[in-house]
Design brief:
Layout: E1 5-6, H1 10-23, H2 33-54, H3 60-63, H4 70-96, H5 102-127, H6 138-162, E2 165-166, H7 169-188, H8 203-212
Parallel strand pairs: 1-2
Length: about 210
């Protein structure tokens, strides 16, 4: 069946899509769309394992602020953007080269289902685990991850029943926020996450509200 998706997010429609339309023009026609999909997923994995190397138990940012090198956070921003871009242009490239297939859609969304978890798990290293003063508890991490995965599941369940994938606004917003958060961490250090941001609230509190919304 023909792939059908609806994206009404203003961020996607007016900012990101024009960027992807420019990027897609420089992708050689001989490159397989699935290669773009897989390359984006590999970048997510590389980022995850790199952060895991420096922060395997999610405590580095809270107890040893300088343990994760600055370049790791900047590299995280780079890989997240690349993965975001590749995931956004693989379908365009498939239609452009007239090579769209149900298998390609399954491959794309199958890797997305893994990436959804990995994006969140990688980001927890920025917030750090609860150390009694700041950070996020393991239980709260689990709840955050569950919300994200539930959102992903509902979107695809809706697609299964209606034949149309209504893309959640949260996807583009979350990717931009992730990139910005990594850049912020690389620029000023993880300490920014450990200090009250506004009226005694932390940046992580604002992200929770955004996530639930």
């Amino acid at each position: 069946s023909q792939y059908s998706a609806v994206d009404t997010n203003p961020l996607s429609m007016y900012i990101m899509q024009p960027i992807w339309n420019k990027i897609i023009k420089i992708v050689p026609l001989w490159i397989a769309p699935n290669l773009l999909t897989f390359s984006g997923f590999v970048m997510i994995l590389v980022n995850y394992f790199l952060i895991s190397f420096y922060d395997w138990d999610y405590t580095a940012s809270g107890t040893s602020p300088g343990l994760v090198p600055t370049w790791v956070w900047l590299f995280s921003a780079f890989t997240t953007f690349c993965a975001y871009a590749l995931d956004s242009i693989d379908g365009k490239h498939a239609r452009r080269t007239q090579s769209s297939t149900p298998l390609g859609e399954l491959f794309d969304h199958g890797l997305d289902s893994w990436a959804t978890s990995i994006f969140v798990l990688s980001f927890f290293s920025v917030c750090s685990r609860d150390n009694g003063k700041t950070g996020v508890s393991v239980y709260t991490m689990y709840i955050y991850l569950s919300i994200v995965l539930f959102n992903f599941m509902c979107s695809h369940w809706e697609k299964y029943n209606t034949g149309v994938l209504f893309l959640p606004w949260g996807y583009d917003i979350s990717q931009v926020v992730l990139i910005a958060a990594y850049l912020l961490t690389g620029a000023v250090g993880v300490e920014v996450w450990q200090k009250p941001f506004l009226f005694g609230y932390y940046i992580t509190d604002a992200l929770v509200i955004l996530l639930i919304g």
